[in-house]
Amino acid sequence: MASPTHPADPTRTNAAERRRVALATTIGTTIEWYDFFIYASAAGLVFAQLYFRPAGDQIALLLSFGSVGVSFLFRPLGAFLAGHLGDRIGRKAMLVVTLILMGGATTLIGLLPTYDQAGVIAPVALLILRILQGLSAGGEWGGAVLMAVEHAPAERRGRFGAFPQLGPPLGLLAASGAMALMAMIAPGEAFAAWGWRVPFLISVVLIIVGIVVRSRVAESPVFAEIAERREQASLPIARLFRFHAPIVILAALTFAGNNAAGYMTTGGYIQNYATNPDGPLGLDRAPVLLAVTASAVVWGLCTWIAGGLSDRIGRRTTYLIGWGCQLITVFPMFWLVDTGNLWFLALGLALFTIGNGLTYGPQAAFFAELFPASIRFSGVAISYAIGAILGGAFAPTIATALVQQFHTTNAVGVYLAGLTIIAAAATFLLRDRTGIPLGPENEAAQSRGATILS
């Protein structure tokens, strides 16, 4: 086999191209997660009433949050498909496909009739479209982070990897802001009648912007060399689970602790708990959504800081600091929310997002450095998707059931604290490989020593 004329070297990517990649991955993931989070927000605010009301109030709420979680069950399938194709045909193509799938499903949800208008067809169609969102989300993240990290110089992978990680907090910021705006423009019954639909329909415009931006970036230099060498793995997923299953499990557990905590707001739980007129607080929708929006700003800032910090002190150390912050704020966050004071609610959410950001900012680089080049897309995407099932998939449903059973949010705090401790232990078992060469010429070294047990 002929050797390539040049190795996979990110320094060949000029500064202008890196900026384009950073912009494309940030905009694309923001749009993807805006679409994903407005569903979760609507599930906490109106979907129980509009699509599941015949089941009774409490069961309808559980079904509404359950529909958020159902999409997570299909994220591994999206990760399997996107991982296989991303390792076979490239990172860039999958970014465009996942964006179209997510945006199309979101726009159709905005046009969907309610149970009163279409009967049982309405919730069934809602679930199908949510499943399509799950398939897209499962494939999106792996491609976006690899485009960012594999274009970056070794000493700045954490910083560049933080760009696509800004997508979720920016998506939450946009989704909560859009919902808060519509709650003010169309308050009360008008919000349930039509106001919630507007943020979903906006997605058709956002998807066009995302496609234009993403289509203008170059393919990852690592995949370009893999293709040039003709060394694409024929069955990347089979190889991944044969040789790297323990790494997938540990990486998934690290994300589970982050994702479950994040889904207290991104999954719509806090929004419903604080605004439910039959609940203990009964606060107005608009100010609660604004408090969530403000917490998304803190989350984004901490995510950005953590990416750069991980380049200086290492990925694992940054993670462990984040787990400590998350653990010590989980109970105070709920105590502050339970005061019913909007300022305290905003403070509690902001404090809680600090640890969430510190364990999210380094994730792109941390995961990319765990897996060999030829199966890296499959490795990061599947680890992420499994972690999402173990963490955020049913976190709002579990939290709702725990409060219904024990009549205190302390039960939810115990649940989240337990997941945080498990995630910290998994992080400790993974080896910090900050700066390891990512090109296919170093695949032998990449295949060894990713855990402290190997």
From TrEMBL:
<dbReference type="GO" id="GO:0022857">
    <property type="term" value="F:transmembrane transporter activity"/>
</dbReference>
<feature type="transmembrane region" description="Helical">
    <location>
        <begin position="194"/>
        <end position="213"/>
    </location>
</feature>
<dbReference type="GO" id="GO:0005886">
    <property type="term" value="C:plasma membrane"/>
</dbReference>
<feature type="transmembrane region" description="Helical">
    <location>
        <begin position="247"/>
        <end position="266"/>
    </location>
</feature>
<keyword id="KW-0812">Transmembrane</keyword>
<keyword id="KW-1133">Transmembrane helix</keyword>
<feature type="transmembrane region" description="Helical">
    <location>
        <begin position="381"/>
        <end position="406"/>
    </location>
</feature>
<dbReference type="InterPro" id="IPR005829">
    <property type="entry name" value="Sugar_transporter_CS"/>
</dbReference>
<feature type="transmembrane region" description="Helical">
    <location>
        <begin position="124"/>
        <end position="149"/>
    </location>
</feature>
<protein>
    <submittedName>
        <fullName>MFS family permease</fullName>
    </submittedName>
</protein>
<feature type="transmembrane region" description="Helical">
    <location>
        <begin position="342"/>
        <end position="360"/>
    </location>
</feature>
<dbReference type="InterPro" id="IPR036259">
    <property type="entry name" value="MFS_trans_sf"/>
</dbReference>
<feature type="transmembrane region" description="Helical">
    <location>
        <begin position="58"/>
        <end position="81"/>
    </location>
</feature>
<feature type="transmembrane region" description="Helical">
    <location>
        <begin position="170"/>
        <end position="188"/>
    </location>
</feature>
<feature type="transmembrane region" description="Helical">
    <location>
        <begin position="93"/>
        <end position="112"/>
    </location>
</feature>
<keyword id="KW-0472">Membrane</keyword>
<feature type="domain" description="Major facilitator superfamily (MFS) profile">
    <location>
        <begin position="21"/>
        <end position="435"/>
    </location>
</feature>
<dbReference type="Pfam" id="PF07690">
    <property type="entry name" value="MFS_1"/>
</dbReference>
<feature type="transmembrane region" description="Helical">
    <location>
        <begin position="412"/>
        <end position="430"/>
    </location>
</feature>
<feature type="transmembrane region" description="Helical">
    <location>
        <begin position="286"/>
        <end position="306"/>
    </location>
</feature>
<keyword id="KW-1003">Cell membrane</keyword>
<dbReference type="InterPro" id="IPR011701">
    <property type="entry name" value="MFS"/>
</dbReference>
<keyword id="KW-0813">Transport</keyword>
<dbReference type="InterPro" id="IPR020846">
    <property type="entry name" value="MFS_dom"/>
</dbReference>
<feature type="transmembrane region" description="Helical">
    <location>
        <begin position="318"/>
        <end position="336"/>
    </location>
</feature>
